[in-house]
Design goal:
The protein has a single domain, classed as Nucleic acid-binding proteins (OB fold (Dihydrolipoamide Acetyltransferase, E2P), Beta Barrel), CATH 2.40.50.140. About 5% of the residues lie in helices and about 40% in strands. It has a five-stranded mixed barrel. It starts with 7 loop residues before the first strand and ends in a 40-residue tail after the last strand. One of its GO terms (biological process) is DNA repair. Plays an important role in DNA replication, recombination and repair. Binds to ssDNA and to an array of partner proteins to recruit them to their sites of action during DNA metabolism. Homotetramer.
Length: about 170
């Protein structure tokens, strides 16, 4: 049995356009704000109730950050899989502050676009799934410094998986 697990899965909508920032070392981070909602019927009034939670997501995978910046917009529906991390920082007055966010790093984390290619208009449509799963694959952009002090980052899978028919699978 595993000693512990740190895994977060969210399906929700972006509350604003992705925000991409660059670091002096050339690395990038893409920040997302994702809303998830629970609905229920109030037992006393019979009214439908809704509670929305807002989640901060930080993508430190350059390929995923580039794709998020290019294709996601406010209102886009996404599936996010990452790890929960808390970091300490100082505000302008020098006070220590803490932020907890879902973090996607190269080779760990997944981002799937659930809207169709037409931005979710109309019915159905295909989304794109992008991630940096255990095999990695894709490009390697070389070592980079991590602002959180983690291991140097590489690339991740930067393109959607192909649609392979069962007849084409070699096993």
């Amino acid at each position: 049995m595993a000693g512990s697990v740190n895994k977060v899965i969210l399906i929700g909508n972006l509350g604003r356009d992705p925000e991409v920032r660059s670091f002096p070392n050339g690395g990038k981070v893409c920040n997302l704000r994702i809303a998830t909602s629970d609905t229920w019927k109030d037992r006393n009034t019979g009214e439908r109730r809704e509670k929305t939670e807002w989640h901060s997501v930080a993508i430190f995978n350059e390929n995923l950050a580039r794709l998020a910046e290019q294709y996601l917009r406010k209102g886009s529906k996404v599936y996010v899989e990452g790890k929960l991390e808390t970091r300490k920082w100082q505000d302008q007055s020098g006070q220590d502050r803490y932020s907890t966010e879902v973090v996607l790093r190269p080779f760990s984390g997944e981002l799937t676009f659930l809207d169709g290619r037409d931005g979710g208009q109309g019915g159905g449509g295909q989304g794109g799934s992008y991630g940096g799963g255990q095999g990695g694959g894709g490009y390697d952009s070389g070592p980079q410094d991590d602002p959180y002090g983690g291991a140097p980052s590489g690339g991740g899978r930067g393109a959607p998986s192909s649609n392979i028919e069962d007849d084409e699978i070699p096993f």
